[in-house]
Amino acid sequence: MNYVIIGNSAAAVGCIEGIRSVDPDGAITVISKEPYHVYSRPLISYLIYGKTDEQRMKYRPDSFYEDNGVKAMLGVAVEKVDYTKRRVLLENGEQVPFDKLLFATGSAPFVPPMAGLDEVKKKFSFMKLDDAKVLQSELNPESRVLILGAGLIGLKCAEGILRKVKKVTVVDLAPRILPSILDEEGSEIVRKHIEEQGVQFYLANSVAQFHKNTACLKDGTELEFDLLVLAVGVRPETKLAAGIGCKVNRGILTDAHCATNLPDVYAAGDCSESLDITVNQQRVLALLPNAYMQGETAGITMAGGEKSYNKAIPMNAVGFFGLHIVTAGSYDGEAYVVKEGSNYKKMVSKDNLLKGYILIGDVARAGIYTSLIRERTPLDSIDYELIKEKPQLMAFTAAERAVKLGGARNEN
Q1: Class of domain 322-404
Q2: Distance CA 245, CA 265 (A)
Q3: Which of 46, 87, 108, 249 has the fewest Cβ atoms within 10 Å of its own Cβ atom?
Q4: Which residues neighbour 125 within 8 Å (Cβ) at sequence distance 6 or greater?
Q5: What is the pLDDT of residues 285-309, one digit of tens each?
Q6: Homologous superfamily assigned to 117-232
Q7: Transmembrane region positions (predicted)?
Q8: Which CATH topology does 2-108+236-302 take?
């Protein structure tokens, strides 16, 4: 059996380990445009900050490929996939045959057209290790950095570079920061905390025109900068999959086994869509743990085993300048909110289920809330009032506690 994986991040690792749990002998080939051993992408801001190094960024040990009998073709781009002849065509002219194929192609920066952007000489993305390396090489104590985008990527970049430059300014079209994961109250808490560190925001604003190293905003403000970071958004890399007939919405459509509509073709990670159980809709759930679980599900299935990925929820665990944030699920429903200084808790329930939560500051035991969402635990079967105040196992029935502590199986 020839297994081929296009991409080399968390989804690829999950797939490799999933395959090997079922098939110890089949040939596995990983093909990646990046020349690096698999690394944890969320850590690139910590590399610039100085909190980690390239060795510690590795998602698996140096011997990972060898230990798992994987042929790693790194620094090689795929030109196209020939599904009829079951082969992957590389830009260097090589061809790699496959019996089972996984797209783990991730996502790429999305840069909307902006007048004068071509005049900006020093502009950067912030998604890959090479992006961080190039940006780091340009930073100096007198640098004025303009970041377009107040989402997770833009703000992690701001955190990573702030102490190394003169000034960091963030511009976003949205009226608040982190709009995809925080509500208005939560966003305000985090924005104030980041502003206190020295980052300046221009929200509900955008660049109308660039003139070399000056950005003219739509409200008339002119911002001078030395380096520009484009963190406006990302798009799933679906071109190769669409080219062979895989169904694609925003991401590649997959079922509970991470299979596409084409036999023997799978997709996992940021390039794919899966069912978000909190809203019962297919969505891209771009998060490293989700990517790994999708890849593992695909790998086990590709190798003939049985595995389903049917508890997918959007979730983020992140911190900015020492302020921790954990969010999960969706926020449509009845809200319970507690705010004390920089600590903020919002829990949203609907139809006797916990649907989502936001924790800022004190994020202790967030895993209990996440478990309630993933397992669709009926709230009338637990002491929800106690759990809202203090997440703890004693709020569960004795049978549920036994399951969560690993002492019994949940037969539901």
Answers
A1: alpha beta
A2: 11
A3: 249
A4: 109, 131, 229, 230, 231
A5: 888 889 999 999 999 999 999 999 9
A6: FAD/NAD(P)-binding domain (3.50.50.60)
A7: none
A8: FAD/NAD(P)-binding domain (3.50.50)
